[in-house]
Design a protein that fits this description.
By secondary structure, this protein is α/β, with parallel strands linked by helices. It is 54% helix and 7% strand. The radius of gyration is 17 Å and the shape is globular.
Length: 169
């Protein structure tokens, strides 16, 4: 069974150092949580898992992260460039772990440009449809899935096929 790594509020020290200051408290709270902090902290945890060698010790381990990859797909080319295998001493290039050990759910991020970035970086067989209900609209999630510019076969994989395979359903 895969692990699902879900965002949560960053530690208070991180919130104090990065998300407070000249912001109104309501803005600081949003920035530390659903606007930015949740996603960045989750991405850092994924990087820690990879760089720790966890997937080298457990090569069959699969992890699911949400929100179209928590910003990681955008950074993948940079990570591959600046963290070569010679530096990390991992058994595979860092990009291999993103493409072979991580799955990415939509999770209410119904935004086409980030979806296309994820699709180009990891392929349709790593993307899982999800809606993030009750925080995001089920209707909007379904409409997003229906309008994706992918082949019918890829839409089937994303809609349910990848989850069925990953979860042995």
């Amino acid at each position: 069974m895969p692990l699902y790594l879900h965002p949560t509020q960053p530690p208070q020290a991180v919130v104090a150092a990065s998300y407070t200051g000249n912001f109104a408290p309501v803005v600081a709270n949003a920035l530390a949580n659903s606007s930015w902090g949740w996603h960045i902290e989750t991405a850092v945890h994924v990087l820690r898992l990879i760089l720790s060698g966890a997937f080298d010790h457990y090569p069959d381990l699969q992890v699911i992260i949400g929100h179209l990859g928590e910003g990681l797909p955008f950074m993948m080319p940079r990570l591959e460039l600046t963290l070569p295998q010679e530096l990390t001493t991992l058994q595979r290039p860092i990009g291999a772990y993103f493409r072979e050990n991580i799955h990415y759910s939509v999770s209410g991020f119904n935004f086409l440009p980030p979806f296309l970035n994820l699709l180009l970086e990891v392929g349709a067989n790593r993307i899982l449809f999800s809606a993030d209900y009750p925080f995001a609209s089920m209707t909007q999630a379904r409409a997003f899935l229906d309008q994706l510019p992918v082949s019918p076969a890829d839409r089937e994989q994303i809609a349910h096929g990848n989850a069925e395979r990953l979860l042995n359903l």
